[in-house]
Amino acid sequence: MQFPEYRPRRLRRTETLRRMVRETYLHVNDLILPLFVAAGKEVKNPINSMPGHFQLSVNHIVEEAKEAFGLGIPAVLLFGIPEKKDERGTGAYDPNGVVQRAVKSIKSKVPDLVVITDVCLCEYTSHGHCGLIKDNDVENDSTLELLGRMALSHAQAGADIVAPSDMMDGRVAEIRDTLDENGFDQTIIMSYAAKYASGFYGPFREAAESAPKFGDRRSYQMDPANALEAVREVTLDVEEGADIIMVKPALPYLDIVRRVREEFDLPVAAYNVSGEFAMVKAAAEKGWIDGPRVMMECLTSIKRAGADLILTYFAKEAAHLLNEGKV
Ligand code: PBG
After folding, report:
1. Which CATH number applies to 25-323?
2. Which of 136, 171, 220, 305 has its CA 20 to 30 A from that of 11?
3. Ligand 1: which atom is nearest the Cα of residue 130?
């Protein structure tokens, strides 16, 4: 096929023609909405760097969950901001903790909405790290038991899916064992399998009040320069029993999303993280880009790269546009 016999522009001439040859469609079923559960009553604190997002007490989380499900969004992902933090992150596996209470409430009021919980200690520890600290280091093996307990407490509260985001070695196997031993063999594990040590988590750490008090997360999250290591990380999580594998962040790592899609046959999720959201919002606010258009372009690109599911703070806005048939 060569010019002038072949002219690619022929198929781009009208919107109807473009619709006919479009390869990728974003669907509301692809979207997962992350939410931040705060302790207390009637709390609705705006998160500065994430316009339209709030720290919400349980009653408001339920309203938000209802709205999301009404828009056709199939799932929410819950993060907790506990009242108190301590060295061992006890709030994380407290049967009466913020997330556990939010899960119960959502499952009783919106039972068909899939509830996913983030399993990680950083929002609950006074030092802000994702595991227990010993000699200024995050200790892997002693953290595993706590992650297992945390996941179990979420399953007991009614969570459909638990999502370990801590990046400790061996945590998927530990969580699967703990769940199975306690009769939760139907609880799904969505593992943050290839999670990078990323500057794009900045706004999230404000939202979840989870920035580390010393050092950083580079000894457990992955080096942004590595791709083969992502394949090894995902392989381990699949062997340990993950049902859904996630790549995080999404946009700067679309090569990893594609690679994971090609090498594994499980559903692939990609996390369009807080910094990716905040950049689009900030530029749109300044009038430098067309916000909704860039949002849809970003989400479609993540899907085109191979993601089946997209965790995104844009979920509600994108669902509105999709439902109105505007895209
Ligand atoms: C917890 C966790 C983080 C995110 C999801 N789970 C923060 C981190 O690892 O520091 C980031 C999500 C986002 O930026 O939207 N470990």
Report:
1. 3.20.20.70
2. 305
3. 16
